[in-house]
Amino acid sequence: MEKIIVEKSPPLKGTVRVSGAKNSVLPILAASLLCQENCVLEDIPVLKDVEVISEVLASLGANIKRDVENGCIQINASYIDNYEAPYELVRKMRASFLVMGPLLARKGKARISLPGGCAIGTRPIDLHLKGFHALGAKIDVGHGYVEASADRLIGNKIYLDFPSVGATENIMMAATMAEGITIIENVAEEPEIVDLANFLNSLGAKIKGAGTDTIKIEGVEALGGTKHTVIPDRIEAGTFMVAAALSGGDVTVENALSDHLKPTIAKLRECGVEVIENGDCIQVRAKNGINATDIKTLPYPGFPTDMQAQFMTLLSVAKGTSVVIETVFENRFMHVAELKRMGANIKIEGRSAIIQGIEKLQGTQVRATDLRAGAALILAGMVAEGETEIGDIYHIDRGYVDIENKLRSLGAKIRRET
Ligand SMILES: CC(=O)N[C@H]1[C@@H](OP(=O)(O)OP(=O)(O)OC[C@H]2O[C@@H](n3ccc(=O)[nH]c3=O)[C@H](O)[C@@H]2O)O[C@H](CO)[C@@H](O)[C@@H]1O
Ligand SMILES: C=C(OP(=O)(O)O)C(=O)O
């Protein structure tokens, strides 16, 4: 079993480049099923999740050519001969469910394994299904699968009870070729939604309002091809920014859009960290330790749940007491038990974590319970006394490109062992 070993590291120094966003590339690759012509995607991160979604697309009949060295993928989905995504693929990655909307639009039929929950929550898909139903699809759920079919999807007005990222994306993709106008209200406003809408519009879709709480889609007959560069990964950028702050270092994060990182920047500044925004670079400097602060995760533009675990590590060694409230996922505190094994003083009360900052963490054996929990433990290992051994690192490889080499280039003492 592979593991990552982290030793107490010096303050991080230097420049690191952020890769393309996992949470953009996954829906965009799913959306490429809608294209009748070639699509070329650039700045594709080398991640396990990208491999899995590519496998899903290939199993549906799409032709995928990947150029890892140049970070490109070319997709030709002119011939789609299957409409089923089986359990073996969907269980590897929940985002596989995002092929349902495009398949419905393209084939009038989709059969996808129910994705189930994961370490951060039960993660239902009721809002996705509510949207497809409103567009006229017949939905059957049984034996662990969702089957949806429609001779023709018809535009409608859909209100999401919660601004779900995945439901917004799935419904938006399904509606691109529906007859007439679809209006989706209370949608997610994440930058990845805007990236997906831009991609779809460049194929010929007519989508307005992405990035606001209401999206309007005028259905078109067919979509063509395009070339698109995915946006930078704001969570990877935020993770390096926290790493810089935590180590008391001076790091420039390149290919980072500060517009997408407002809550992360604001919270770092509240912690007493210097953050300098300069074009698509963000410099993070910390010399005087970390002050405690309170955090509440919320849908965008609120503080991202995907940065909660990394900040929990930072606040574990802050001066004073912090409170972190997780409102997006009902069970996203699994990393707390691991941080406590490293000596952190954290108490959980319902959806709140009360963190009493301590002087030093201690290295030990811990387990990455999910992707961001894994990142939080790497960060903790960099400031812990002795050595930290992190297991179950396949979670980390789902969403961070070459994390140990990127951190090592900044001076971190980190290595991977098999
Ligand atoms: C691949 C991808 O982009 N993943 C991101 C996406 O996940 P994902 O798209 O799964 O997250 P959602 O925004 O859908 O989920 C947010 C909340 O809504 C609930 N919900 C969602 C759908 C639904 O039909 N019913 C329902 O109740 C979920 O259980 C959760 O409590 O957004 C999350 C929230 O920013 C991020 O943490 C994930 O990194
Ligand atoms: C929760 C995450 O991803 P996913 O939705 O793919 O599980 C994440 O990126 O932190």
From TrEMBL:
Main location (coarse class): cytoplasm
Entry-annotated residues carrying 2-(S-cysteinyl)pyruvic acid O-phosphothioketal: C118
CDD domains reported for this sequence: UdpNAET
Pfam families for the chain: EPSP_synthase
Residues that hold UDP-N-acetyl-alpha-D-glucosamine according to the record: R94, R123, P124, I125, D126, L127, D306, V328
Swiss-Prot/TrEMBL catalytic activity: phosphoenolpyruvate + UDP-N-acetyl-alpha-D-glucosamine = UDP-N-acetyl-3-O-(1-carboxyvinyl)-alpha-D-glucosamine + phosphate
Family designation: Belongs to the EPSP synthase family. MurA subfamily.
Known role: Cell wall formation. Adds enolpyruvyl to UDP-N-acetylglucosamine.
Identification of the protein by name: UDP-N-acetylglucosamine 1-carboxyvinyltransferase
Species annotation: Crassaminicella thermophila
Top-level taxonomy: Bacteria, Bacillati, Bacillota, Clostridia, Eubacteriales
Underlying gene: murA
